[in-house]
């Protein structure tokens, strides 16, 4: 509610300032141009998402998710030992996040959480795997930050790819710290359970 009033206040103050300074017509032009730019940007972002979501559906259709799951199995078995039947879904979710498709990865992540929740009813220790999946989604290692690349391209950046290495370094660090803290908390909980 506060943000709504904040935005309304900012718009009213801007409108009054434009009218007082005699820039009302240029404000209208800027508003119309901003709307047109927003629609154009939305279409460009949508095209980027459609391309990569289509690629992920091709991966699913060809059965490559089994290969991705096997490739990630050593890492996933270390981070999420009780993952079980949700392994392929988790692998697809993490793969989509690595490609920078956070919005497209959300439905797959929700499906993985549902599978883990069902497993948690049989094995309560799986709750830590659910926490780890949440951590990995929140920190999201990104080899290819698709959304940011699309935004930079749409804005006319001379070199939109210049952010690849810094993004990889930052997301690798955040994922490593998050996963490390998650594993420490799991071990702490396991030690606590042994004492009970």
**Count of distinct strands:** 0
Total number of domains: 1
Computed structural class: mainly alpha
N→C terminal distance: 46 Å
The outline comes out as elongated
Order of helices and strands: HHHHHHHH
Runs in which pLDDT lies below 50 for 5 or more consecutive residues are none
Describe the model.
It is a single chain. By secondary structure, the protein is mainly alpha-helical. The protein has one domain. Helix content is 83%, strand content 0%. The chain is built from 8 helices and no strands. Helix 2 (24-62) packs antiparallel against helix 7 (146-154) and helix 4 runs antiparallel to helix 5 (102-122). It is elongated, with a radius of gyration of 22 Å. The N and C termini lie far apart (46 Å). The mean pLDDT is 84.
Task: Provide a compact summary of the structure.
This protein is mostly helical.
Pick out its properties.
196 residues; mainly alpha; 8 helices; elongated
Could you give the topology of this structure?
Elements: H1 2-21, H2 24-62, H3 64-79, H4 87-98, H5 102-122, H6 127-139, H7 146-154, H8 164-195
Helix pairs in contact: 2-7, 3-4, 4-5, 5-6, 6-8
């Amino acid at each position: 509610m506060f943000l709504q009033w904040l935005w309304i206040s900012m718009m009213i103050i801007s409108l009054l300032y434009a009218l007082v300074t005699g820039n009302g017509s240029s404000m209208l032009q800027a508003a119309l141009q901003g709307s047109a730019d927003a629609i154009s940007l939305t279409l460009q972002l949508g095209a980027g998402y459609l391309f990569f979501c289509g690629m992920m559906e091709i991966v699913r259709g060809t059965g490559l998710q089994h290969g991705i799951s096997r490739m990630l199995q050593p890492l996933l078995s270390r981070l999420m030992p009780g993952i079980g039947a949700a392994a392929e879904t988790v692998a697809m979710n993490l793969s989509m996040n690595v490609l920078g498709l956070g919005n497209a990865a959300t439905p797959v992540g929700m499906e993985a959480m549902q599978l883990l929740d069902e497993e948690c009813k049989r094995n309560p220790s799986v709750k830590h795997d659910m926490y780890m999946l949440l951590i990995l989604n929140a920190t999201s290692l990104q080899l290819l930050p698709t959304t940011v690349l699309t935004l930079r391209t749409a804005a006319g950046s001379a070199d939109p790819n210049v952010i690849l290495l810094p993004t990889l370094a930052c997301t690798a660090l955040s994922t490593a710290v998050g996963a490390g803290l998650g594993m420490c908390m799991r071990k702490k909980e396991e030690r606590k359970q042994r004492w009970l």
